[in-house]
Amino acid sequence: xxxxxxxxxxxxxxxxxxxxxxxxxxxxxxxxxxxxxxxxxxxxxxxxxxxxxxxxxxxxxxxxxxxxxxxxxxxxxxxxxxxxxxxxxxxxxxxxxxxxxxxxxxxxxxxxxxxxxxxxxxxxxxxxxxxxxxxxxxxxxxxxxxxxxxxxxxxxxxxxxxxxxxxxxxxxxxxxxxxxxxxxxxxxxxxxxxxxxxxxxxxxxxxxxxxxxxxxxxxxxxxxxxxxxxxxxxxxxxxxxxxxxxxxxxxxxxxxxxxxxxxxxxxxxx
Length: 270
Description:
By secondary structure, this protein is an alpha+beta fold.
């Protein structure tokens, strides 16, 4: 598609304009470092710092096809250092309209589990959990997206912007195809490669907002294939992070309430 890159940029702009995440903001901070340091260095440093933080998470994934938009919301808390957290993903009107996810360094737990009694938790080794949708991460792990940002290229400074009460500097760069698909299950990676091929691109634009104290506040990424009001597709993901000093506690369900499962591919789980 000749204008694939311009379409990607337009998709990001639309998603950011119409989507909002409801994470509670930190007090406003002045952005002081972004203007003088190279843009790529600022983003790299912010990603590294954020991967050592504890955060409140609020994300949206909006998918439009056939003129119908489905919006998945994800909220919770996550300790980037330990790889532990609790998240709830929800979609209105779904057969299962919400799932609770508990992540430990080694195991992912979630409930409800299709075909199991209420109160049963599915469990799966963390290393085996993959994403099944382009732009999503395994079990909605926010650190996985930050790790993708470690490979951001062609970073430019867009300008200073406020996200609610939080003063930030907005940066824009690109993520290559291998980075975008690194966490996908094998069969979904093939599908994502096909989608990007139809768009005529091997990278997507990604927008990053960084606070004055050098932490990632928001990440936005999107793509558009054809006309989403017809048979095409638009998909946009926004992740908001806010540092918290509250301890992140993950209560592991009793072993007798869990069942081993490999069925972690639903739209709510990533």
